[in-house]
Amino acid sequence: MNPLGINLWNWCAGLSEECLGLPEKVARMGFTAVELPMTQPQVPSALADEIRNTGLAVSLCAALGPGRDLSSFDSAVRASTMDYLTTCLETAGQLGAGILAGPLYTGGGKRHWLSPDEKKREWMLAVDGLRELARRAEHYGVVLSVEPLNRYRTSVANTAGQVLRMVEEVDAPNVGVHFDTYHACLEERDLCAALEQVLQAGKVNHFHACANNRGAPGQGVIPWEDLLGLLVRYGYGGHITMETFALGGLDSSWVQVYSEPDELAREGLFYLQAFFKTKAGL
Predict the structure, then answer these.
(1) Which of 19, 196, 228, 244 has the most other CB atoms within 10 Å of its CB?
(2) Residue 200 has what pLDDT?
(3) 3-state DSSP assignment of residue 36
(4) CB within 8 A of 199, min separation 6: which ones?
(5) Is 102 left (phi over 0), alpha (psi -120 to 50) or beta?
(6) Per-residue CA distances from 21 to 17, 128, 265 (Å)
(7) What was the pLDDT predicted at 33?
(8) Helix 75-95 crosses helix 45-54 at what angle (to 10 degrees)?
(9) Can you give the pLDDT at residue 254?
(10) Do 272 and 217 contact (CB within 8 A), yes or no?
């Protein structure tokens, strides 16, 4: 069975000592992986020790808010962003995390119209930045997984097809596509066709399972059995990670539209376990 994980964003607004106790909770619940929200590039030592002691598989999700942007026209911003991401890679190496995922090419909140020449320049800065980041990631034994974001977060790359083209232009064996069902709900004409396109290309190396309202797998309007069935059909063996948000977190709602965090985590995990044990015949 794939590593089934959850991002600590389900309980906390960011990475800090307030996360202590959560990895152990994740393991007790039955998850086999945990994802860290890298609002800061280093993990408190006590939390790092706890993560190691759980034996959970680990992935890191980059948090590129305003000011973190490999595609910025400002060279100082690009340099500071590369420093942040490189420190994330160092942290991944220390924790034995094999994946650094997220919108590695740009910061959230960057939405603008550009001339064709400026758009091309922005794109190439993203590609060049990812190519250098991939070179650094190889040193730490880390794979990069590049995520498209919806239109309300960025104008650089919104669809799986766009990120697939970006990854192909980077042309590094340790760079792939991070498919997130929440973002895809807002941008793709056909969820299953979008996922199948990148699966056929052999480029999916991380998967976020989120309902259209940031709820758990199995909830919302997403055709879960069809999407997860595609992962099985194409032999995807990577992490399947819940990315839900506690109130006040990055993509949380303004009202409580789903269960409390512990219950939400269990609901999503039970759905994924049931699917892979029965529906997928594993």
Answers:
(1) 244
(2) 98
(3) strand
(4) 230, 231, 234, 236
(5) left
(6) 9, 39, 15
(7) 98
(8) 50
(9) 63
(10) yes
Helix, strand, or coil (residue 244): coil
Number of other residues whose CB lies within 10 A of the CB of residue 268? 28
Inter-residue contact 59 to 96 (CB < 8 Å): no
Q: What is the pLDDT of residue 65?
A: 86
β partners of residue 59: 35, 99
Candidates 235, 216, 221; CA nearest to 280 is: 235
Structure tokens at 218: 């199995």
- How far is residue 148 from each of residues 25, 87, 167, 174, measured CA to CA in Å? 30, 22, 11, 17
pLDDT at residue number 243: 94
pLDDT under 70: residue ranges of the chain: 247-249, 252-257, 279-282
End-to-end CA distance of the chain: 7
Q: What is the pLDDT of residues 17-70, one digit of tens each?
A: 999 999 999 999 999 999 999 999 999 999 999 999 999 999 999 999 888 999
Q: Alpha carbon of 212 to those of 193, 216, 268: distances in Å? A: 17, 9, 14
Give, as one character, the DSSP assignment of residue 154.
B
H or E segment and range at residue 255: none
CB atoms within 10 A of CB 139: 11
Q: 258 with 24: CB under 8 angstroms?
A: no
- Sorted by sequence, the CB contacts under 8 Å of residue 18 that are 6+ apart come out as 12
- 237 CB burial (10 A radius; 0-12, 13-18, 19+): exposed
What was the pLDDT predicted at 155?
85
pLDDT at 181: 97
Helix/strand/coil for 38: strand
* Nearest CA among 12, 53, 5 for reference residue 31: 5
- For residues 129 and 105, the answer to whether their CB atoms sit within 8 Å is yes
